[in-house]
What does this fold into?
Amino acid sequence: MAITNLQRKTMTNFKAEARYRTEHAERPILLETAESIDLLVDALLNGPDDHNLAQLHSLNRPLLPAYGDPDHELLVGVDSVLGFGALAWMDADGNQVTLGSGEGLAQAEMYFIMGHRREFPEKSSVPLDLIRQAVKEFLLSGGKRPTCVEWQKLEYW
It folds into this structure.
């Protein structure tokens, strides 16, 4: 799904928050454009190895009434050495991760958010250009699970 100039202009109606460094726990990064997503992915690629995973929540989706928490979560992990990444999606329907072709890493992959380890299952790696495309789709759709990648359901997370 290529982002056109018209879509770039309308993306400002959609917003998401990203957290990947300790200081973002209280002050998340605001994502509003395709360019801001590219900057996020670049920051993950070029940052410390223990900060290569981001947690995203759309601001266009309703909050859960009981606690006021988001009803979804998209995790975005990147590996600057291999040139691949992985996504995890969580909502009321369950937990899913990207299903890769096995080109990247066939074994379990480790990513780190704010210094905390998160393991992704084997065959969850997809090329970085697909990671960028999926996160842009997440933003442009108002926080829906991206359809440009294949997903695999998880029995545990």
